[in-house]
Structure formats: C-alpha cells, structure tokens
Amino acid sequence: xxxxxxxxxxxxxxxxxxxxxxxxxxxIAVTGGKGGVGKSTIxxxxxxxxxxxxxxxxxxxxxxxxxxxxLLLGVAPTRSLLDALDGAALDEVVVSAHGVTLLPALNGSYxxxxxxxxxxxxxxRLIEQISTRFDTVVLDIAAGIGPTQSVFTAAAPDVVxxxxxxxxxxxxxxxxxxxxxxxxxxxxxxxxxNRVTSxxxxxxxxxxxxxIVARFLDVSLTPLPPVxxxxxxxxxxxxxxxxxxxxxxxxxxxxxxxxARALDAAASPDQRRDAASGFWRRHLTAVAGDAP
Length: 292
Fold this sequence. Notes:
By secondary structure, the protein is of the alpha/beta class. It has one domain: P-loop containing nucleotide triphosphate hydrolases (Rossmann fold, 3-Layer(aba) Sandwich), CATH 3.40.50. Helix content is 51%, strand content 16%. It is built from 14 helices and 9 strands. The chain has helices at residues 4-17, 39-52, 69-73, 81-85, 110-113, 117-131, 147-154, 167-184, 199-216, 231-239, 243-246, 251-266, 269-276, 279-290, and strands spanning 26-31, 57-62, 95-97, 100-103, 136-141, 158-163, 188-196, 220-223, 227-228. Helix 8 links the parallel strand 6 (158-163) and strand 7 (188-196). Helix 1 packs across helix 12 (251-266), helix 7 crosses helix 8 (167-184) and helix 8 (167-184) runs parallel beside helix 9. The chain is globular, with a radius of gyration of 17 Å.
C-alpha cells in the first residue's frame, strides 16, 4: 500500500523548516527499472546534498557496464571496480569531486555488465569493505531488472524508485518493484516523481503507481517530494558539474534537496539507531552471502 499520510507528514515538515541534515550512517539505492528517467541525476544530487551536510559520502556507480557518474561529477577515473576485482587497492580506484568519493564502474565493460554470481559477491564485499570509511553510501543502479541490478538494489536498506509521467516509466517502475518484492524480500520503497510539471501531476504519477502496486504486490510505498522538469539538469550534465553545485536554486535542485531532507525525516528513531550500530553493513554482508 502507498503510505500517503507518511509522505504528507514528511513534505509538511519540510515546508515548515525541517531540521538540517546531519552526518549519520545511511545507504540508499536509486533505481527505477527504465533507463533515462533521471536516476543518476537524483543519485548524484542526494550524494552532494549529504556531503554538503558534512557526511563522508561514497557513490557507487552500479551501472557497471554503462557507467556515466564520472561524467556528471566531472572526473576522469583511470581505474574502475574491474581493477579492484582484479586486485587493485581501493584507494587507487576511487576518485573524489564536489565532496563526494566515487567508486567508478567502466563504460563498455562486458565483464562488469555480465557479472557472474561469484563476481557479484566479491563486488558487494568490496563495497562493504570501503563503506566502513563513510557515513553515507549512494548506489546508482543500472536500468533493468536483472540479477545484478536487483541484488545491488536489495543491498541497501533504503530503496528509492525514480519514476516520471511516461507510461513506459510507470510500467518499468512497477516491474522493478515487483522483482525486488517477490525475489529479494524488499518490503518498502520510496518513490520520487521526477520531471513532473506540477504537484498535481506528481500526485497523479504516485497515485497510479501506488494503485497497481497495492493491487498486486505486498509492499509499501512512501512518496517523496517531486523533482520538477528543469533545463538546468541538462546544463549541469553538459558541463560535468552536479546540479546542486551548478544551479542550487534551480527548481530541480531544490526538489532534490527536499528529497534528501524527506528521506532523513522519514527514518524512524529505531532506523537511525540501527544505522549508528552498522545496520546497513550487516545487511550488505547478508545480501552478499545470499546473492545468487
């Protein structure tokens, strides 16, 4: 079912002036099923928002064979996760920009795109290893619902599904949630309506997705604030600067900042205590052990 009331409380709290973001342990997988819906823009924006709040923030480019986070961050890594899997030290692989540390993948890498189960387990353990240095981890998940995408999404306690008004986006978001629920035991996800033109359109997108999910799946959805269609998104991508750095007052940038605050506000005290005790890394270890 869709937790509309919880979402309204989050948004209402933000409008009244939410508490500032605080450095704390959190791990977020940003997914959506369909390519081109804005997952990477949302993921980079969340990472920058938390980094600016003082969190030591790691981004994982989990679009392993079609990696592009380096372009959005304006960096040119000389190594990638593939090198780490081959034995390179993680310190030699990661790169930093705009306060965010990136574990890069490799564009055009068939080996990473077609990870065997054993390689997935090793990759998850590498992420677990490096994540001990960070408060916040944001995974940008590739399009699709294959085993690599779904396993890495399920590795994060917080799953954010990005959806826009296009019918194909709605259909693929549903397919993504279905796989996560039925095959990986994910019982809750957040939904970000992206590239909408009004609050009414955002409500319609979330409502239609929520209706079909409630009808067929045993999972709860919590809507997050909308991110409005904004030409500044493409401007930022073209120059390789995160939107929140390039145009922090742009409508889409303000929307992503609201999403970051809403995610924090939605976390219960118990979840925050679990995070402080290393919950997400224990969860990640369990997923790595069970990954098919």
